[in-house]
Specification:
This protein has 323 residues and is an alpha+beta fold. It has helices at 27-30, 48-54, 57-81, 94-105, 118-147, 240-245, 307-319; strands spanning 86-87, 114-115, 153-155, 159-164, 167-171, 174-176, 182-196, 202-209, 215-219, 222-223, 226-228, 249-258, 264-272, 276-278, 281-282, 286-288, 294-296, 304-305. The longest helix has 30 residues, at 118-147. Strands 7, 8, 9, 12 and 13 form a five-stranded antiparallel sheet that branches. It has a four-stranded mixed sheet with strand order 11-5-4-14, with no helix packed on it. The two termini are 42 Å apart. It has seven helices and 18 strands. The chain folds into two domains: 44-147, Helix Hairpins; 151-319, Sandwich (Immunoglobulin-like), CATH 2.60.40.1400. One of its GO terms (molecular function) is inward rectifier potassium channel activity. The chain crosses the membrane at residues 59-81, 122-144.
């Protein structure tokens, strides 16, 4: 990839020309919560299970609490309509009817309050049936949320473009944060950019970036997938200004199998060209001690070094040595 004269870190892409949105290149980097979908109504009841699985834990907890309290309030009002139908409950105490509803919904049945009228028994029957369905649904949702496969994978804060041995390449470091390894890992890089078609339309195009090693049998600690920028690379010949004008970004996706659970896990990240660092490489984070134990220093995960600085230090060290 050709570089323009000037600073090594490319400027942030500004608003583009025409009818292009200035934030389109941030779709993968920031997620899809900021996207406004016109003509598509997202009704929660049409895809309730997906919404319940993907909602944040705080939202899930408060919505569940609201539904639980609301259902019990509704049944407490129904029981209160037949105030003499519950033996052991104060006819004028709404709290008694509310807590009787809680006991009935959960099928606890302490025995201190029991339905005696036909109306109260009918309401209790409906509530018990509904309570079993609600409990089954809540149990399944909570289990699914806890058991949903997730990869605890770190992606480096910066993507590096470095020339070594006369060869330009793109590096991104990936690390497994769990103790159990990820098996049969497949990594993909893609260049996403906005392209003007001959008809004048603007489309988002994805060009795969071939990696030197796209398949890793076992990801125990960290790896650094590398894309060589040569004549076959979609990045060949493009300058920083070209990529900024096309609002380009590098999309990284990882797929593998968690050894502990046997489930397929996924992870992804994206790098706009404001997150590129030139003529740097990642520092080592894996060291072997004298006792044979391996140390992985994740505090240095995002740290980089310049080969030019390293060569200068080596030259300075050699110059200080006696002949």
């Amino acid at each position: 990839m050709a570089q323009d004269a000037g600073p090594q870190t490319p400027p942030r892409p500004g608003p583009s020309a025409g009818d292009r949105s200035p934030a389109l290149h941030k779709v993968e980097d920031q997620g899809h919560d900021t996207i406004v979908r016109v003509g598509q109504v997202d009704r929660i009841w049409s895809d309730f299970y997906h919404h319940a699985l993907t909602a944040p834990w705080r939202t899930f907890f408060y919505c569940s609490l609201l539904v639980y309290v609301g259902v019990n309030l509704l049944f407490a009002l129904l029981y209160m309509a037949d105030s003499q139908g519950i033996k052991g409950a104060d006819p004028h105490s709404f709290a008694d009817f509310f807590f009787f509803s809680v006991q009935t919904l959960s099928t606890v049945g302490y025995g201190g309050m029991v339905p005696v009228s036909r109306t109260a028994n009918l309401i209790a029957t409906v509530e018990v049936l509904g309570g079993m369905m609600i409990n089954a649904l809540a149990t399944g949702l909570i289990f699914a949320r806890f058991s949903r496969p997730r990869a605890r994978v770190m992606f480096s804060d910066k993507a590096l473009i470095l020339s070594e041995n006369g060869q330009l390449h793109l590096d991104i470091r990936i690390a497994n944060c769990r103790r159990s390894p990820i098996l049969s890992v497949d990594v993909e890089f893609a260049l996403a950019r906005l392209i003007h078609t001959p008809s004048g339309r603007v489309v988002r195009q994805f060009d795969p970036l071939t990696l030197q090693q796209s398949h890793v049998p076992v990801l125990r600690f960290a790896c650094t997938p590398t894309h060589v920028i040569d004549a076959r690379s979609p990045l060949d010949g493009l300058t920083e200004k070209d990529l900024a004008a096309e609002e380009a970004e590098i999309i990284v996706s990882l797929t593998g199998t968690d050894e502990a659970s046997g489930q397929t896990v996924f992870a992804r990240s994206a790098y706009g060209f404001d997150r590129m660092l030139y003529n740097h490489r990642f520092v080592d984070i894996i060291n072997a001690g004298p006792d044979g134990r391996i140390t992985v220093d994740y505090t240095r995960f995002d740290q980089t070094e310049s080969p030019l600085d390293e060569n200068a230090e080596v030259a300075e060290y050699l110059a200080d040595q006696p002949d």
